[in-house]
């Protein structure tokens, strides 16, 4: 089982990032954090790195259900979505597969919530 869902788009990085945020919103996710990996690596290590942004996406309803079922599941939240420069004018968008990430927890109800999250993230990726 893959641990992520992804799609490569024939568009520039900034456009892909904006489309991703909008697609997440349409599926009930908000972006709680944005980490600019390129900028961080340049500042901290002085290295050049292609555009790479990590979006910490959260669907409050799903997060609430999951935390009620397993109070430590917050260690695995939010759902990270990566937007990265794939070269040659292409940008890849990849999202964590909640089902894969929750396999370590033996709770059938949590697996149901994770499957719902996966379905919503699949819609996000498909909409790009």
Describe this protein's structure:
With 128 residues, this protein is an alpha+beta fold. The protein is 45% helix and 28% strand. A five-stranded antiparallel beta sheet has the order 1-5-4-3-2. Helix 1 packs across helix 5 and helix 3 packs antiparallel against helix 5. The model has no long low-confidence stretch (mean pLDDT 97).
Write the layout of secondary structure elements.
Layout: E1 4-9, H1 13-26, E2 30-36, H2 37-45, E3 52-58, H3 60-69, E4 79-87, E5 90-96, H4 98-101, H5 108-127
Antiparallel strand pairs: 1-5, 2-3, 3-4, 4-5
Helix pairs in contact: 1-5, 3-5
Give a short synopsis of this structure.
The protein has helices at residues 13-26, 37-45, 60-69, 98-101, 108-127; strands at 4-9, 30-36, 52-58, 79-87, 90-96. By secondary structure, it is an alpha+beta fold.
Can you give the helix content as a percent range? 40-55%
Across the major sheet, the strand order is 1-5-4-3-2
How many beta-strand elements? 5
What does the overall shape look like? globular
For the sheet with most strands, the description reads:
5 strands, antiparallel
What's the order of the H and E elements?
EHEHEHEEHH
Q: Provide the β-strand percentage band.
A: 25-35%
Tally of helical segments:
5
In terms of structural class, how would the helical and strand content be classed?
alpha+beta
Unreliable stretches? none
- Give the overall average pLDDT: 97
**What would you report as the Rg, rounded to the nearest angstrom?**
15 Å
User: How far is the N terminus from the C terminus?
Assistant: 23 Å
């Amino acid at each position: 089982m893959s641990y992520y869902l992804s799609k490569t788009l024939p568009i520039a990085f900034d456009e892909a990032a904006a489309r991703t945020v909008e697609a997440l919103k349409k599926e009930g996710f908000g972006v709680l954090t944005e980490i600019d990996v390129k900028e961080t690596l340049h500042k901290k290590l002085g290295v050049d790195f292609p555009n790479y942004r990590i979006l910490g996406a959260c669907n409050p309803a799903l997060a609430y259900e999951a935390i009620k079922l397993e109070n430590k599941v917050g260690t695995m939240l939010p759902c990270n979505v990566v937007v990265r420069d794939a070269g040659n004018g292409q940008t890849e968008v990849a999202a964590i597969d909640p089902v894969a990430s929750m396999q370590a927890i033996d709770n059938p109800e949590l697996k149901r919530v994770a499957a719902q999250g996966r379905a919503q993230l699949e819609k996000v990726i498909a909409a790009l």
